[in-house]
Write a structure and sequence with these properties.
This protein has 86 residues and is mainly alpha-helical. The protein folds into 2 domains: 46 residues; 29 residues, no CATH class. 76% of the residues lie in helices and 0% in strands. The longest helix is centred in the middle third of the chain and has 42 residues.
């Protein structure tokens, strides 16, 4: 009787299905883990930079940014400038 080779684990029957499923699950988990590692590190790094950057700013720069966003009126901004100069 002539048998053809149908690829890896094809002659294993129902067990071949589980071997393939485990292989696919391994690769999915590996790729997911790498993505989580990369993006988790980037998010933590950005958070640290953002926190350090804004805590080191001088008060006038913060007031200018708030005035530019519209959080402060011109009178409030001028009062802050005056208070900081004294």
């Amino acid at each position: 009787m002539l048998r053809y080779y149908n690829g890896p684990a094809m002659g294993l029957g129902f067990g071949g299905f589980f071997v393939g499923l485990l292989g696919a699950a391994f690769w999915v988990l590996l790729i997911w883990g790498l993505i989580a590692l990369i993006f988790g590190h980037r998010r933590q790094h950005w958070h640290d930079w953002h926190h350090d950057h804004h805590s080191a700013e001088d008060p006038l720069a913060i007031a200018k940014a708030r005035y530019a966003k519209g959080d402060l009126t011109k009178a409030e901004f001028e009062q802050i400038k005056k208070d900081l100069d004294s």
